[in-house]
Structures are given as structure tokens and as C-alpha cells.
Structure prediction request, 304 residues.
Amino acid sequence: MSNADKLLKSIDTFIRKAEEGKEDIADILPDDIPELSKIPELVEGFEKLTAKLLRQQRKFFLDAFQTFVSKDDQITLGAMLNYFQSNLFAADEFAALYGVEAATFLTLTTEGLAKVIMESIDEDVPFQTLSKRTTNWVESWSTELGEIMQLNTHKAIESELIAAIQNGESIQQAELRLKDLPEFDRKRARATARTEILAASSQANWESFMQSPAVEGKKWKHSGSKKSVPRPSHVAMDGEVVGVDELFLVDGEFGMYPRDTTFSAKNRVNCGCVIGPVVNQDIIRLSPEEKEEIRQQVLAEMNE
Prediction:
């Protein structure tokens, strides 16, 4: 097993454990990769920021709920539901605020992982900067992630208010439903932060392989936690090799790597698969100057 493969295996094991959320992230950090020491701090910081924004979002809706009730003590839950749908959801700023925080987290995490991965592949070609393709991915996925989380919260609020109406509950009972929504709690923040490190890891792999002149392909490796039930389509992918910038075809869907955000939930959620580099030893033996020239040509294309 090459140094790069050993490193990637250690990183992927660490990240899967982090995503499962059973232990403190700092306690499961691989001892042989001190360069990853900043990752736990990034994940925990993102979790705290996510939790803070969820608390702010909860306060926004509850304050609006109470203000609306105070204006008319005869208000109906039907009118309250309409008020949320027609006014409050559009005024919710969570998605915009969260997109900024997610972009910062994904950028720092992807940079940190790419640095370690590239150095393990070829010390002559150290990481310098992320390509435009990756920074564009960070921007688009951060925005989409914020919008998805906001939409899911809105759907949960609608469901609770509709359930309260159908059950003939009081205004006070409906308010308690909103207060206790799991969409606002710390568990959601924790799960989101730990899940997004998987996305950052996958993108860092692709970025590193693209910028490393000696890497001419990527190999799909099936793996997963003991809790997960293997997907036959993912097991069938084990050992599949494609070009670094080519797509894998998985169960009728195309993606650059495991858990690619272009995959549907059936191929992303709880996927523990990884990719490894296919290295051309002839290129490894080129001079540092020759390899850097190749890298700069690839970066120019990635930055178009």
C-alpha cells in the first residue's frame, strides 16, 4: 500500500468516525497525521455556528408567533399557518447567513485536507491554492445547503401547525410544538457539521488528484461502517477506475467521487466509499520543475 493510500485510509476512517458522532472529534484524530490537528477545531466551530444560527431562527419564528397572537387573542391556527406561509418564511434570513458560514468551513477544511493529500502523493508538488472549480463548488454547495436546511425547517413548521389544526389544539399547544422542533436543536447542528466534512474530504481528494501531475486516474473503493447495509451498486463499483476528471456511473447516476453532491440521497446518505489515486511512476520520476509545469497547465484549465 502506497503512502498516499495509507494516508487516505487514515483520513477516511477518521472522517467516518467523526460523521457517526459517537466520540469527540479530537479523540479520534489519527496520531500519524499531525497536519490534521486543525480539522477538529474547524468542525466544532462550524457546529457551534450552525447551532447559533438555528437558535436565532427559532427565536425569529417564536417571537413572530407571539407578536401575531398578541395583536388578536381570537386568532386561529389557520390564520397563523397562513401568516407563516405568506410572510415569515419569505423573511427568514437563515439560508443567506448560513451559506456564508458553510463556505468558510468548506474552504478551510478542503484546503487543509488537500495540503496533506498532495504531499503524500508527491512531495515535489506541494499544495498552494484551490482551483476556481473547487471555489465555485464551495460557493454553489454552501448556498444550496443553506436553502435545503431552511426549506426543511419551513416544511417541519408547516407540518406541526397543520397537525395542531387537525388535532384541534390550542394556540399554546401549537407554540410548544414549534419550541420543541428537532430542526432547531444542537443534534441537527452536530449532524450537519459532521456530514459536511465528508463533502469537504471528497472535494479535497479530487482537487489533490487533479493538481498532482503523477495521478492519472482515481479508483473507487467500497467501504462503510459496521452499521451500514452495503449497497449492491456500490459494492459493484469496488475497483472501478476512471480518469481523474471523469465521472463514475453509479446506479444510473454520475458523480466525480463518493458522496458527490450531484448524486441523489440514495447514493450519498451513509455512503462510506472512498477513492484512491492511480499513480504514474514515470511522471513521479520527473524533475520538480517538470512536474510543476504540468501542474500549472492543469490549474490554468481548472481556473477557466
